[in-house]
Write a structure and sequence with these properties.
The structure is a single chain. 32% of the residues are buried. With 151 residues, the protein is an alpha+beta fold. It has a single domain, classed as 3-Layer(aba) Sandwich (Aminopeptidase), CATH 3.40.630.30. 29% of the residues lie in helices and 36% in strands. It is globular.
Length: 151
């Protein structure tokens, strides 16, 4: 069974926060921050059998030319099934629809699985932010994807 990606709503917040806390135990987003992100309409969830198994959010203001992948996570039991790739694909489509030419993100230096996901979509490392992830003091690798502008 493959996950279906749809726009996230307030009703998804509890399930998303459970995944967030399990995925990022030391630096999870607050419920208020996640709620605010969901209110923008740029957050998505992946569902299997009417159950949220992953989520992601992108900041892609129309006309800005740049977009940022804000967050993405998949329930541990569903990792490696293409859920993250589906979510990322939807976020990149949203960015392109809004006119973004570049998409940026930060990824933990100690998360090679996420780094590989981004690299398979064409993201390349362009910088590093020392001790970005707190309280762990883990560096962030800044990555960028240049989107094609074909009609």
């Amino acid at each position: 069974m493959s996950a279906e990606v749809r726009t996230a709503g307030a009703e998804d917040l509890d399930a998303v926060m459970a995944i967030e806390r399990a995925s990022f135990p030391t630096d999870a987003w607050s419920e208020a921050a996640m709620r605010e992100t969901f209110a923008t309409g740029d957050a998505f969830v992946a569902e299997e059998a009417d159950r949220v198994v992953g989520y992601g959010a992108v900041l892609a203001p129309a006309g800005s030319g740049d977009a940022d992948v804000l967050t993405i996570a998949v329930e541990e039991a569903h990792r490696g099934e293409g859920v993250g790739a589906s979510l990322l694909g939807r976020m990149l489509e949203t960015a392109a629809e809004r006119g973004a030419g570049r998409v940026f993100l930060e990824v933990r230096a100690d998360n090679p699985v996420a780094q590989r996901l981004y690299e398979t979509r064409g993201f390349r490392a362009v910088g590093r932010r020392p001790r970005y992830y707190q309280p762990d003091g883990v560096d962030a690798i800044v990555m960028r994807l240049d989107l094609g502008r074909s009609a």
